[in-house]
Structures are given as C-alpha cells and as structure tokens.
Design a protein that fits this description.
The structure is a homodimer.
Chain A (H helix, E strand, L loop, with lengths): L3 H8 L3 H9 L6 H14 L5 H8 L4 E6 L5 H16 L3 E6 L4 H13 L4 E4 L6 H9 L4 E4 L9 E5 L1 H14 L5 E5 L5 H16 L9 E3 L4 H13 L6 E4 L2 H13 L9 E5 L13 E4 L2 H17 L7 E4 L2 E3 L7
Parallel strand pairs in A: 1-2, 1-3, 3-4, 4-5, 5-11, 6-7, 6-8, 8-9, 9-10
Antiparallel strand pairs in A: 10-12
Helix pairs in contact in A: 1-2, 1-3, 2-3, 5-12, 8-9, 10-11
The first copy, chain A, binds a DNA duplex through helix 2 and helix 4.
Amino acid sequence: MATIYDVARHAGVSAATVSRVLNGHVKVDPALAERVTAAVAQLGYRRNAVARNLRTSQTSLWAVIVSDIENPFFTSMVRGIEDVASSAGFSVVLCNSDENPEKESNYIAAALTEQMAGVVISPSSNHVDDVNLLLESECPVVVIDRELQGVDADTVLVDNAHGADLATTHLIEQGNTRIACIAGPRWLSTATQRLDGYAHALTQAGLAVDDDLIRYADFRERGGYDAMSSLLDEGAAPQAVFAANNLMTIGAMECLVQRGLAVPSDVAIVGFDSIPWADLIRPTLTTVAQPTYEVGRRAAQLLARRSSTPDGPAERVVLPTSLQVRGSSTR
Amino acid sequence: MATIYDVARHAGVSAATVSRVLNGHVKVDPALAERVTAAVAQLGYRRNAVARNLRTSQTSLWAVIVSDIENPFFTSMVRGIEDVASSAGFSVVLCNSDENPEKESNYIAAALTEQMAGVVISPSSNHVDDVNLLLESECPVVVIDRELQGVDADTVLVDNAHGADLATTHLIEQGNTRIACIAGPRWLSTATQRLDGYAHALTQAGLAVDDDLIRYADFRERGGYDAMSSLLDEGAAPQAVFAANNLMTIGAMECLVQRGLAVPSDVAIVGFDSIPWADLIRPTLTTVAQPTYEVGRRAAQLLARRSSTPDGPAERVVLPTSLQVRGSSTR
DNA sequence: AGCGTGTGTGCAATCGATTTCTCATCAGGA
DNA sequence: TCCTGATGAGAAATCGATTGCACACACGCT
C-alpha cells in the first residue's frame, strides 16, 4: 500500500505538498498539483484514514445504534439518516444493540474509542451512564425515538401519547368498552407514553382503566403473542386491543388467527408503528403511523448542526403521529 | 481526554508499561500493574483506537455492505454475522449500498481507508473492480448471496437454481402450464440462477420456455408490481407466477389483490426468500426458503478464518434451499 | 568474586497523515 | 539597485499508541 511519502517521491515534491493538493485548502502551483494527481493515479494511492483521523482527531463516520435491526421502523429511519449524512459528507455505520444493554454499552465504547464523528442512538435501556459518557467526551449525540431522563442531549421523538390516544379513542368510538392494551417495557419512554395515551383516552370517555386489561411485553413478536394469549385466557376476553408497537401487533394477530378468532368481529385491533405490506395482511391493519423517515432525517440534521456548533442548548423535536384506519378495527 | 502518557505519569511508570498492562501480552510486576489499573480507573482513560489502529495497522471492525437494508433477508443474515463476530472479538458495522453501485463504491473505499479488519459484501452490481480493490489490498473479504465472475474470494451462496426448480416444478405439479417468471436484474447471479432453475423445470416437464412469460424487474416491490401488471396486460394471462425474490412477490401480490384477482384460483404464486409474517398474509405464501441466518454465520466464519490465515484458496459455500408449500400455490 | 542468565522496565523509533514554522523566490515600488 | 511583502514549498513536530532494543537488577552457579 502506497503512502503519502511514496506519492511525494514519485511526484518530486514533499509530503506536505501532496497533503495540500489532496485537501485543497491551500493554494499549490498547478504544475505541481498536476504531478501529484498523476502520481496518485499511477500508484493507486488512497490516503490512510486512520493516520488522518489520528492527526485531525476526527473521523467522517456516524454510528447509528439501533435497538432492533429487524424492526422496519428502524430501517426506514436509517434511510432518513443516510440521506442527510451523505450530503453532509459523512458515512453511516449501523450497530445493532438487539435491545441488549451490554451490546449497546460495547457499541458506545467502540464509537468512543474509534473516535466516531457522531452517534445517533435509540437507547435499549434507561441506563443513562453510557450515553452520558458520550456527551462528556464531546462526541455529538442525538437520542432518537426514546427519551432518556437525566440526559441533556438533542432528541427526536414522536408524539406517542397523542397517537395512542387517537388509537384508543377510535376503538371507543367503534363501540368497544373493554379495550385491552399490550404495552411495552416499563422502562422505555415510548412504552409508558403510549400507555398514558391509552389510559387518557379511556378516562376521557368515562371508562375505567383496568389493570387486568393491561399486559407488559417486550416490543417483540413473541411478546405480543404471549400477551394476547394471556389476555384471552385470564379474565374476561377484551373486545378490542391496542398494541403498543408493530411487532407486538403482529404477534397478537398471529395469536388471534391461530385461535380461530375473527378480526375485527371477535376482537378489534389497532397497532402502533406502520407495518410493511400491511395491505396484504387480512384484515388490513389499523395503525398509528409515525413519520419514520422524517425522524431519521431530523436526527441527522441535528447531528450535523451539533458537529459544526458543539455548544448550544439541547433541542427536543417531537413529530406528529396519525391514525390510519383500516380493516382491523372497523365493524 | 486522557492519553496513555497521562496514565503513565499518574501511575509513575512509562507509557510502554501502561500499554503492556492494557494488552496483557507481556509480564508486568503485579504491583505496577495495580498502580496502572488504578490510574486508568481514576482518570477514566480509554485507549484511542485510532492511534492503536495506526500503529498495529488493523482494526477490530468488520464492515458488512448490504444492498438493501430494508429487505428482511439481509437483516436476518446480519444477525448471523454479528453472533460470530462478537465471539471472535469483532464489532460489526453495517453499510447500506441501496442497490446503488456508486454508494457501494464509496463504502468500499471507506472500508479501505478506515482499515477495516474485514468486509462482507453482497454486491449490488457485477462491477468487480471495487471488490478486487479490496482483495488486492489484502483486506479479508467474503462475498455473500451474489456470485461475482472474475473474483477469487470466499463466497457464501444458496442453491438458487435448485430452489427455483423446486418452485416451478411444484407449480407444474399443481396443473399449471402457463407459468410466468418475474426475474431479477440480469446482471445479478441470484437472478440468473433462479431464472435458469425456472427454465430447467419447464424444459424437464416438456413445457416451452416462453419469453412472453418472463419479465425482468429490480428485486424491489415496485418492480414486482409493474412486472405483474405487464404480465396481465400484455399477452395471455399466466395461470401461475414464480417471483424471484421476496419484495417482488409482495409487489405482484399487491397487483393481483388490487385487480380483484383471486390467489391461487385465478393466479397461483410462489415466491423466493421468506417473508416475515407470511402467516398473516392471505392467502399464506408458498416460498422458497433460504437459511439466511446460516448464510451470515458461515460468511462470518470464513472471514474470521481468512483474517487469521490470509493465504489459501478461496472457498465457495453453497447452502441448500427448500420449498415451503402454503396457500398461494395450491388449488 | 565474577560471570552468565533471566526478568522486567524505559527509551525511542515507528505507523501515515496534517500543519506550523521557516525560508527561498519573485514581483513591484522606491 | 535594493528593499519589502506576498506567495508557496519544504522540514520537522505532532497526534497516541505499540514494540524492538538496550540496560539495570537480581539471582544462581562455578
């Protein structure tokens, strides 16, 4: 592998000049520049980013740490980040923490030791120490999707409570009174906010919030399935279910299908997050849609701004959610 | 940010000793080691990976360059890679080339300049120059899912031709004679192999391979939709369709649904690749299943081996596919 | 006592780029 | 002709870690 010195020798100039030509910040005699670019082409030289990063103490990589790579919510969001990143001159690398705090911790450590230029993270726990580590080391950070108590970082969220309220109110308007909720992990802000929205809608309609109709699961398909089973087996069966994320909605549906219960006539269902190919699922699914791509885009914009102006107050962006009524909730 | 020299001063030893304690390759007086670890803890020191990478000229990052992050096939594969990577002491970063050769080229360049310890790539074109660039620079590479002509690299594939043959034969056995194929891009080995399997099955059964029944699309949902439209509008409508990947299968289904055609009674359909939540789609989809997780796992194993023993002949692993018969193909 | 051996530490070179500082060169004005 | 200022190129320091080499010290043997 050729180094900058090889190029310099080949072009009959100093390494400093090669560097200047490559970076283009300073003026160089066109004749020399020409010789340098020729030498670069001839030797197939590509600059060693590691050495450059060491000297300039910065990289052009953004790390995006997501909690579940298999959840379409995140993949769509990543597209939003990528589009902004590439136009800002950054490359995006994705890390999958798999809802596992230990893996998350490792990836944060890696982002720090690898001197990443920025980090977008959807925390898989409310364990704030790791994220604060990033903040302390002046690494630009944007927290996404999930709110962290006690962390003063730029954040992009969606209006979870409102979305859940819309979903629940819709189910009430359809004439349901026994409405269950399959909630997410208690320690995730998205989960608690959605649960709050559900409870708020019930209260608003003069209905009681019944703990027997609430199940806490893990935002995974399996968890949704088990929660639905539990709802059907224990206590009076609900007329309708609000599931607090996409994968759990799928799990709940699978449970209902497997038991031969008809949706929505036996049990109506509304999910949170959109689901790819929702049109092909029968019945089609009523869901609370989030602007996932936009979430990513805004997060990336915040990160880019934070990179150029590290100081300044943390911003908190909340994007709207909306109810997409389809077949699974209308009788 | 504390450096190794800060730690050394704090512990009253030389930087060399700190390094030796941190890496643990060489023996150090336990008393000194104790002082060093104490100093590390006290200063919150974390070693600068960039400097280390420069000196040792290697990193502990594997880049996985996939052609479509939104395709569940790849996300499942990534899990397989991650599991092996973490037990081999590597971290995985994901790059999304988005079926775009230019982006792919950029990510390969980034992998090279960032001195990645290894690369797993599912090429989005048959433009072999970039991949050869990796090989020449002795960066361990494993090509995955798609075969590249003229590239002598470790490769993990599935038996595409056999899978397509199974799918098509199954449709023939169900009594269909006019069987269409929605094929992928001509330049991708997966696409051509699947088309070959389709043609082979037809020939074997004494049926003609009719170009009017073949459409080339782009492995995307939209492409599948358009191809299906074209098949229905031009020429005699097919009795059955074999779609060469998961997203195009979805697109084709959506087209059929939208036109009010019943599956499988009007048109039977078999897809390639599994589809998440296939159980919830009505009718349930017959597909050719691939061992996606295993593909990732094997690729990662090859990469790990190549890292430790750079020389040696390139290996080519072909994993089996199998037909999962469900509702969309059986009358 | 003297020498050889082994153990462990520190010094300093090194990885490959960037960047400050210094200096040579040249143009233009007095 | 000489001086000044501008311009641009090269020499060398630097980023932070690793590691070959030399050396100091302790110990054991003759």
